[in-house]
Amino acid sequence: MGKVVLVTGVARRLGGRFVRRIQRDPRVDRVIGVDAITPEHHLGGAEFIQADIRQPGIARVLAETGADTVVHLDVTAMALGSGSRTTVKETNVIGTMQLLGACQKSPTVKRLVVKSSTNVYGSAPRDPAVFTETTPPKSLPSGGFAKDTVEVEGYVRGFARRRPDVAVCVLRFANILGPAADTPLASYFALPFLPTVFGYDPRLQFVHEDDVMEVLRIASHEPERGTLNSGTFNIAGDGVLLLSQCSRRLGKPTVPVLLPAVNWAGSLVRTLGVTDFSPEQIRLLTHGRVVATQQMRETLGFRPKYTTAETFADFARSHGPGLLPPEALAGAVDRIAALPALGGGHPPTQSAN
Amino acid sequence: MADAKVIPFDDDRSRGSAVQRPPRRRGAGSRRKATAEPALVGDVQPLPSRAPAQDDVPVTREEQQPERPQDEGGLERRIAHGLDFLRRRLTGDYEVDDFGYDAELTDQVLMSLLRPVYEKYFRVDVKGIENIPSEGGALIVANHSGTLPMDGLMMQVAVHDNHPAGRHLRLLAADLVFMLPVINELARKLGHTLACAEDAERLLGQGELVGVMPEGFKGIGKPFSERYKLQRFGRGGFVSTALRKGTPIIPCSIVGAEEIYPMIGNAKTLARVLGIPYFPLTPTFPWLGPLGAVPLPTKWTIQFGEPILTDGYPPEAAEDPMLMFNLTDQVREQIQHTLYKLLVQRRSVFF
Fold it and tell me: Concatenated DSSP letters for B2-26?
């Protein structure tokens, strides 16, 4: 029996990479990539069908291809190219509704994988320090991508109720980073200096693109023995980095700004349309967010290759040093240590170690 | 301390006056060994005939060390250690846990800032430290008072500096703490987290020592006339958390914190405007401005009581409200009783 995988959102790097990855999988016979625009990158020989998932035409695509596994990756925070926030929101919410409607009609679909985000938990000072999959958010996100993901997950839950024969897997990814990631946080870290909220040092978690590929692959196949790959899972690398650590490891100076000023500047920037620095992004960079990954390890049976710190190190390597490279700072401290006035008897290597 | 003091004499004196000190220093040394190589080299340097306790007492007691060669070695070592610390901080090469607890910063900087207040200002006496297990989870339940949560911080220093295993107390704090800028950052780095069942259970499950003050704002913001009268213990959520995890509950009574800011009035309207639970009026605050915010130098006693074991109960006990109320009352009674006992023993508020 051949396995046919339909992937949405392949015009994005993540989608394109996943198509190439799953195409090489011996257990998969046919891969169909779907997106509203033609991808700029190659899809490794996979078929590409130009279809807008916001239109009912997606049902025909699904019926014609007879896909048994649908991987819905077109739930994204940032517009591709020059798209506006409205388009992104429509693709996220209306697109998911149309796709789920099409899946509900299709008799061939056996498995649905949806890319979500840990944004669904929001970030508030009243929240517990670590979110599990069952933690109800104290304050639901009021708008932006976070609200989209909450709505998408709501529709997916409805679909899972109506089609109990389809295995549904919702993957809540922490901030995806990697050499090629195009997420809001990646563009934030690409700034020459990092504006931070004064008096707050948020805890952040990252997941590497390679791990994203691997967990999507696990979720789109039959579960391994002793594991279960339907349900909702938090996906994040081990450990936590504080924003202050991130800035120091990147070697970028921070500019602390008072919270009211940040909110005001954020809305100004949004109005001018320079960048989509959304309120939920500001909340994340104020209060931070950490999720528990016990379910991912024990139920899904997935162990990320990269920890949060390693993911960030890989991202930092691909972006080059900032204005204050950590190596230079370390060298400066070593030179102070080597000064004869300060413990000249010691070889400098002692403190450089 | 005179320079010419004979060594055995000095040794005896330091042992006698600071019985609790050596374990902490040893604990700090072993942590240093684990984290940084240079510190390891430094630790080996002192003469083998001198015990580490004796070598370390002057470092914290007095800035000057009695012997010259040791002084130089110690200074150099401290500079090397300090620079190594600076280097790691500047390059972001340190670890924090899921709750944002920065063990290195707490040990090296924040604790050193709190220690003078603990040792010199409030002169905290600690009793019953042996009731805290040396490993595994335990829930310390204490009374709360003093307008500002100094008692929590002092309890954290008391546990860390006096416990033979140098255990770290992870305090559960009110949500207000995590809304305020700077305060929330420091609280997270000190290992505090939000007082909610999820966080408490996660910490206890990791085998941490968790500190909670169930009186909350009712306790800390009570008027001076009600000092040492325990308020209602919330809804007893701490008991069900301990029951679910099967960890012992250790009652803790803190004497002295109630008098640091004698709260004679509460400007409720101002508090509502500022969005805080109470706005204290003391004989000095806010009349003397920032000077009025200096706490009174009371003499403190922190007593840890006999642990109340919870592992004997069946798993469904956490759902039994009657048992929960009984245990809550038992903990509350024990704390209140110890408070009265300590108050009778106390000679004066300030000495």
Answer: -TT--HHHHHHHHHHH-TTHHHHHH
Helix (H) or strand (E) holding A116: strand A111-117
Strands B265-266 and B280-281: what pairing? antiparallel
Place of tokens 């691997």: A214
Q: Which residue has the tokens 């960079």?
A: A285
Q: What is the DSSP string of A206-217?
A: EEEHHHHHHHHH
- 8 Å CB contact of B96 and A240: yes
Q: ipTM greater than 0.90, yes or no?
A: no
pLDDT for residue B29 is more than 50: no
Cβ contact, residue pair B198, A130, below 8 Å = yes
All domains in chain B, ordered by first residue: 7-90 (no CATH), 103-260+295-345 (3.40.1130.10)
pLDDT digits (tens, 9 = 90+) for B82-108: 888 988 898 888 999 999 999 999 999
Contact B181 A326 (CB under 8 A): no
What confidence score (pLDDT) does residue A349 get? Answer: 40
Which residues on chain B are in Cβ contact (under 8 Å) with A242? 96, 100, 102
Contact B177, B199 (CB under 8 A): no
> Structure tokens of B173?
């704090």
**Closest CB to B84 among A201, A258, A351:** A351
Whose CA is closest to A129, among B46, B208, B202, B157? B202
User: What span, in angstroms and rounded, lies between the C-alpha atoms of B307 and A158?
Assistant: 49
> Contact B351/B299 with Cβ under 8 angstroms?
yes
Give bridge partners of residue A7 from the DSSP assignment: A33, A71
Residue B109 phi/psi, 5° resolution? Answer: -120, -60
* Beta-ladder partners of B142: B252
pLDDT at B42: 41
- Name B2's Cβ contacts closer than 8 Å, sequence gap at least 6: none
| Closest by Cα among B267, B258, B261 to B226 | B258
Interface residue A351 vs chain B (CB under 8 A) = yes
CB B172 within 8 A of CB A186: no
Q: What are the tens digits of pLDDT across the range B54-76?
A: 444 333 334 444 444 556 678 88
Q: Phi/psi of residue A31, each to 5°? A: -125, 130
Instruction: List Cβ neighbours of B30 (8 Å cut-off, separation of 6 or more).
Output: none
Give the DSSP letter of residue A62: H
What are the angstrom distances between the C-alpha of B332 and each of A127, B229, B253?
Answer: 28, 11, 10
Cα separation, A189 vs B174, in Å, equals 32
Q: Chain B residues with CB inside 8 Å of A329's CB? A: 87, 90-91
Distance (Å, whole) CA A234 – CA A304 = 12
- What residues contact B277, with CB distance under 8 A and at least 6 apart? B176, B217, B221, B271
Distance CA B146, CA B124 (A): 15
B308 secondary structure, DSSP code? B
Place of tokens 């010419």: B4
- In tens, the pLDDT along A228-252 reads 889 999 999 999 999 999 999 998 9
Percent of chain B exceeding pLDDT 70 equals 79
Average pLDDT, chain B: 82
